[in-house]
Amino acid sequence: MKYIIILFFLLLVSSEARASFTFNDNCKQAYADMMNLRYAKAGSRMQAEKKMNPDNQVPYIIDNYIDFLKVLIGEEEKDFINLKNNKERRLQKLAKTGKDSPWCLYSQALNYLQSGVARIKFGEYVNASLDINRAYRLLIENQLKFPDFAMNKAGLGILHSLIGTVPAKYQWAVRSLQFEGTIPEGNSEIKEAYQQVASDPQLSFLVPETVFLLTFVTLNLSADIPEALNLAQKLKTSALSSITNESPLLIYSFANIYSRAGENDKVIQLLTDCPRTSDRYPFYYLDYMLGVAKLNNLDKDACYPLLSFLGNFKGKNYIRSAYMHLAWYYLIQNDQQHYSTYIERIKLRGNDQVDNDREALAFANKNVKTDIQLLKARLLFDGGYYARAKEELDGYKAVDTKSGIEYTYRLGRIYHNWGKTDEAVFYYMETIKNGEEMPYFFAANSSLQLGIMYEKQNDYKQARKYYLKVLDMDFDEYHFSISNKAQAGLNRIKGK
Predict the structure, then answer these.
(1) Which of 106, 158, 301, 431 lies 20 to 30 Å (CA to CA) from residue 472?
(2) What is the 3-state secondary structure (H, E, C) of 93-117?
(3) Residues 40 and 149 in one domain
(4) Count of structural domains within the chain
(5) pTM to 2 decimals?
(6) In terms of domains, do 173 and 84 share one?
(7) 367-412 pLDDT, tens per residue?
(8) How big, in percent rounded to 5, are the helix, strand and coil portions of the chain?
(9) Are 396 and 409 a contacting pair, CB within 8 Å?
(10) Cα separation of 460 and 348, whole Å?
């Protein structure tokens, strides 16, 4: 979800009035309402704008935002159909006049991009590739006509970065899109867009979005968690903090950053304080995130947000994962009956589009006994509670080959994030030695982490060795995300 939902931040707006694309106070307020998930208010403002200023094309940009975000957040087919049904009509409106404005081609590109991302979520991959390719062509054309247009750089930057993560064996699909890019190239473009926006008072309200894009690339593609955390903390302590605190979308982004940085208490606080008023479109995925974060702290009330998510969310992603976390919750509470109930429910409802759900389904189908010590260590590690996680493994005795491999893997991950590099390398090596021929992800992710570690030390020969080792391994769980990160690592160090 996180790679797809992040793309909505490509859909940025400007306060400048050019031709028929006029971002007046009414449109800017509608945009703020939209970012805060107050879709009814934003829609009403745009209806009024169409009557007051019938030549203004901005309402059609914001209307499409709202429909697109509903698809991303709610994952309901009726919203997807609505977005598709309005596509051509809005494209005609956006292309009607204002060709001397950079927003003319850009707004059309955003429409195609929104359609492409939505199609990916609903499995229409061929048409998605056509839409994304069309969006890219329009962005390139617009860049030639208006080379100083900041938001065009942001859009191209994120596309160039994402293309740079595609594994080599899928490059045939990329070639069909007929465009290429690298993570450093995309990162540089987004930084340039951010700097341009931050230095222009007329565009200052766009700073959160451009920072978000930069943080996304830094966190997920460049694998620089400290830098992503630094960016988030700067924004949270800036004059814009009151704005970001009102947006569940931006709170989602910060929660992801703090989660990856091992600052689980901040995740829980952010998501607990997130505004959930009745005039906002419900973002039930945040309940899933909160339940997982609470479970990572072994909280007694971790079940309630997970149950809320399962009871309200009408989409298909993360359903299986939520059931798995509920099962783990009850296992830790020594409630075998509820544990078994939720293990069975994993098989009955949900999708397998994301790694978390594939892991849950594989977990349920294998029907193997879960080691509570290893489970608690994993959860505490995910929350950044490294000392507590290590204590859970003190005196641990493996009962089979898999638990032995997982034991060394968990210790490697704990020591790595704890800053104890020598111990981490030792346990990663042990995991690879004993697990690289096994179908589990432990050896592959150990190799990925070694690659990242050596890359940070500028030992590119060793980094390349371990990134390539990931791509040579045959494993089931988290295959797509781990392989993507390894490919992204190879792209970063290419030529070094």
Answers:
(1) 158
(2) HHHHCCCCCHHHHHHHHHHHHHHHH
(3) yes
(4) 2
(5) 0.85
(6) yes
(7) 778 899 999 999 999 999 999 999 999 999 998 999 999 999 999 9
(8) 75, 0, 25
(9) no
(10) 46
